[in-house]
Amino acid sequence: MKKIIFVSAFVLIFNIITFGQTYTVYSDEGLTQQISNSDTLTIIADSSSQVSFDFFAYLKNNTSADLNIHIELQPIYISSDNLLQLCYGGTCFTTLYCDGVIPATTPGELHITLYYTSSDTQTNIVKATIYNNSKGDTSVFFVKFKSKNTTSFYNPITQSIKISKPFPNPANEYVKFRYSNVNTKDATLTIYSILGDPITSKKFNDNNGILTINTSNLKTGYYIYTVTVNNKKIITDRFLVKH
């Protein structure tokens, strides 16, 4: 289970500014932990085997009608090998902003995912801005993504391994990866859905060659892939399937 550290800040100022605001943002589905303006929330991965950090926020409608809102993520610092994903109301977007609806009866669910590499020793920081398009209500908070004991599972010898970007991209019937210097019996490429669910894995059988994965049965959309060597993730990236 991921650890979530909730840091409350500027509560008094927030209460003054947001008096009568049309919605409230919470960090838990039970709507007990309110996120105030300028709050910072930290997500800590359990181990090096984890593929993604997942942060959820819940937007409670304080009116009797559906609310139109705009959500935008701004990377304050994201490592170049990492990927940020915005999902709202069960839909994932290819951009870091979206327009959505906070239902009158149930909370709207904001899902922010960071797909990361195990060699990342930095703290990744994202600024989230939410505002009501018609009323001008605005909420701003920050999410920090931190690996646990990152340096303990980073292995510099994996830097010599060469693995190409996926091709063709977009993929149709198959996707391929050209590789070299994979001088280990424990190297695996795993495909995940955009929500982090594992779909298929395939081992690298030789030191050099081309790894081919059948994508004909995958639905059109983005997919995440990771390359793991000796139980250490060395690559995390994504590709598109389009039929």
Write the layout of secondary structure elements.
Elements: E1 3-7, H1 11-17, E2 23-26, E3 40-44, E4 52-61, E5 67-77, E6 83-88, E7 91-93, E8 97-102, E9 108-115, E10 124-132, E11 138-146, E12 162-163, E13 174-180, E14 187-193, E15 198-203, E16 209-214, E17 221-229, E18 232-241
Parallel strand pairs: 3-11
Antiparallel strand pairs: 1-3, 2-4, 4-9, 5-8, 5-10, 6-7, 6-9, 10-11, 12-13, 13-16, 14-15, 14-17, 17-18
Keywords summarizing the entry:
243 residues; Immunoglobulin-like; mainly beta; 3% helix; six-stranded mixed sheet
Largest sheet: 6 strands, mixed
**Beta strands, count:** 18
What's the overall average pLDDT, rounded?
Answer: 80
**Strand percentage, roughly?**
over 45%
Rg, alpha carbons? 20 Å
CATH architecture of the largest domain: Sandwich
Percentage of residues assigned to helices: under 10%
Poorly predicted runs: 7-19, 149-158
- The CATH topology of the largest domain is Immunoglobulin-like
Order of helices and strands: EHEEEEEEEEEEEEEEEEE
What is the CATH homology-level superfamily of the largest domain?
A: Immunoglobulins
Number of domains: 2
> What is the terminal separation in angstroms?
36 Å
Across the major sheet, the strand order is 1-3-11-10-5-8
